[in-house]
Amino acid sequence: MSAKIISSKRDNPQIIINNFKFHKAYEGVNKVRWRCINKSCKAKVFTKTNVYTEILNTENEHNHEAVNENTINWQIVNTSCKRKALEDVSTRPKKIILQELIHNECVKEITINDINRIRKNMYENRRKTLPANPKSIAEVHQALNVMNIETKQKENFLLLNDENENIIIFSCYTNLKCLSLVDTLYMDGTFDYCIRFFMQMFTIHGFQNGHYIPLVFCLLPNKLTYSYAFAL
Question: What residues contact residue 162 under an 8 Å CB cut-off, 6+ apart?
Fold first, then answer.
């Protein structure tokens, strides 16, 4: 008898055993008591406190049919996608969902509505940990002042947050070191794809190993401040 861990609609832990779902009723020092989600059912399961998938014993039989297998599989995919949405916030939900469906062959029937629900749940899960979208450029600067923006190598990635000039520059020590060593630079300013509250996203690329690599990213309030950003 094996158990799988999933999350309820309210992100509470549940376990699945033979397509029957249980919610946590009590957690002690050494074991956890789980009860069937059907209120009229008295079936119980006991697992270890630190290892929910390790079943110690069970009590009573179910007085109802098991949950549809496709519903169970959908919930397993939903739980996995919500977790991965927090582990990799830069990856689009659609890509995470497709990867999960490819690796989870047990999901045989899934509709567009199911995918939309999973995507919505992923965005809601991210909003619980990420700050709210700023409503003004002042809020953008305030948010950056309290955020710890780092690369995967734990380098500080916020180079400048100028609240007076409304200029923000992202880069790190490794990028700047690379920038000082390359022979060829390429600068580009885009207006169509710049984020809200700024007019231009100005980037500096270095030519290395046959490719132009983006090394510095600047958010500028107008078309005339790129020289100021580059001078920094």
Answer: 168
Domain final residue pick, 59, 79, 95: 59
Strand, coil or helix: what is 137?
helix
The answer to whether 167 and 218 are in contact (CB under 8 A) is: yes
Cα 201 from Cα 112, distance rounded (Å): 35
Q: How far apart are CA 145 and CA 60, in angstroms?
A: 56
In this structure, are 100 and 141 located in the same domain?
A: no
Instruction: With beta carbons less than 8 A apart as the criterion, state whether 131 and 144 touch.
Output: no
pLDDT digits (tens, 9 = 90+) for 31-50: 899 999 998 999 999 998 88
Q: Which domain holds residue 101?
A: 69-128
| CA distances for 84 relative to 42, 97, 119, 151, angstroms | 34, 9, 12, 18
pTM of the model: 0.53
In a domain, 64, yes or no: no
Residue 227 — very low, low, confident or very high, per pLDDT cuts 50/70/90? low
Tally of domains in the chain: 3
- Identify the helix (H) or strand (E) that includes residue 35: strand 31-36
Q: Which amino acid appears at position 142 of this protein?
A: Q
